[in-house]
Amino acid sequence: MNLFIVEDSPYIQNRLIRFVEELPDVRVVGVAGDISSAYNAILDADADAMILDVQLSDGNGLHLLKNIKQNKPGIKVVVLTNHSTDANRLQALRAGADDFLDKSTDFEQIPQILHDWQQPAQIQNLN
């Protein structure tokens, strides 16, 4: 699985990369800290999955999510945010997010989510 991280905090970026390095068959293919540099980089990297923050330095990550899903509908996306309001959750799911996590309470779920996303592909490869 090719994973792209869109997160403006270098601390969180590094923490996510460390998590992913421990997972078999998951590879970080890019990291961006803002929307303007993320869009084309995600498409160029042929990402299968994305971890996306909502509040980025140049706007709302959910706008990026909508645009990416229009051009790459099969990409899996987990929204990871400190702004885990019901309104943001609903907007993220409507925009095409597959999961919505709170950075302060749900961070540890990321490895399992990525693992679960790989299962259908691994089962399909066995057939």
From TrEMBL:
MF terms (GO), sorted A to Z: DNA binding
Pfam family, one: Response_reg
Chain positions with 4-aspartylphosphate modification: D53
Keyword Phosphoprotein among UniProt keywords: yes
CDD domains cross-referenced by the UniProt entry: REC_NarL-like (cd17535)
InterPro entries (alphabetical): CheY-like_superfamily, NreC/VraR/RcsB-like_REC, Sig_transdc_resp-reg_receiver, WalR-like
SUPFAM superfamilies reported for this sequence: CheY-like (SSF52172)
Response regulatory domain segment(s): 2-118
Gene Ontology biological process terms from the UniProt entry: phosphorelay signal transduction system
Keywords: DNA-binding, Phosphoprotein
Name listed for the protein in its UniProt record: Response regulator transcription factor
UniProt organism field: Undibacterium piscinae
